[in-house]
Design a protein that fits this description.
Number of helices: 2
Structural class: alpha+beta
Order of helices and strands: HHEEEEEEE
Strand order of the largest sheet: 1-2-3-4
Number of strands: 7
Helix content: 25-40%
Number of domains: 1
Distance between the termini: 102 Å
Strand content: 25-35%
């Protein structure tokens, strides 16, 4: 009886099909892994940016006149800006304090409009920036962007007069200040498009006790 000298055409086709499926699976897993890493990297960058911005905001508010912060709306009301007098200098001789007016506010990013369109071409719609203005109205007024890529609304929130994300607020923006007694809560949602054009969002929240 003769031994088989090679593979039949059917066996070759089965092998080729199996190898093609295996290669496709490996390629798909590699692509998914790369996408996951890309999104994770973008998310980590957003968290770092949000943390830096919140740290700067709380530093500014820590020097604020408590009376200005006390007029912020109490929950369930909120605001996307806060304006206050802050300590700018203390005279070492007599201890007198100098104050300047400061504002922290949510503003549209340069080139962006409130029209549901990505006007500035960064992959986000109606995105904002957090703007810090010091010496407001004074001769040394200075505007500085604390963080970019701020979402129009807080994560999982929509403009429908409802509390979509269950945090006790309705329709709150990507930067939001709300107060319960003398505790001020600051919420910040950042977004950025990853390499595949998908929007990655990260939200950080911090709270501080206002001075009496």
């Amino acid at each position: 009886m003769r031994s088989r000298a090679g593979y039949t055409l059917v066996e070759v086709l089965i092998s080729v099909t199996f190898l093609a499926l295996l290669a496709g699976t490996i390629a798909s897993m590699t692509t998914l892994g790369a996408r996951s890493y890309n999104s994770s990297s973008v998310g980590s960058h957003l968290v770092l940016s949000a943390r830096r911005a919140l740290d700067r905001i709380t530093d500014e508010l820590g020097l604020a006149d408590a009376a200005d912060l006390a007029i912020l709306p109490g929950r369930p009301l909120w605001d996307d800006r806060v304006e206050f007098d802050r300590v700018s200098d203390v005279d070492g001789a007599d201890g007198s304090v100098s104050w300047t007016r400061t504002r922290i506010a949510l503003e549209y990013a340069p080139g962006e409009l409130n029209d549901g369109v990505d006007n500035d071409g960064n992959g986000l719609v109606d995105d904002r920036v957090v703007m810090l203005t010091t010496d407001l109205g004074g001769p040394n007024e200075r505007r500085r962007v604390l963080v970019r890529n701020v979402a129009e609304f807080h994560e999982r929130e929509r403009e429908n007069a409802l509390d979509d994300n269950g945090n006790g607020l309705a329709d709150e923006r990507g930067l939001c200040f709300d107060r319960v007694g003398n505790v001020l809560t600051i919420r910040l949602t950042l977004q950025r498009a990853d390499g595949d054009g998908r929007t990655v969002s990260q939200t950080l929240t911090t709270a501080m006790r206002m001075r009496n």
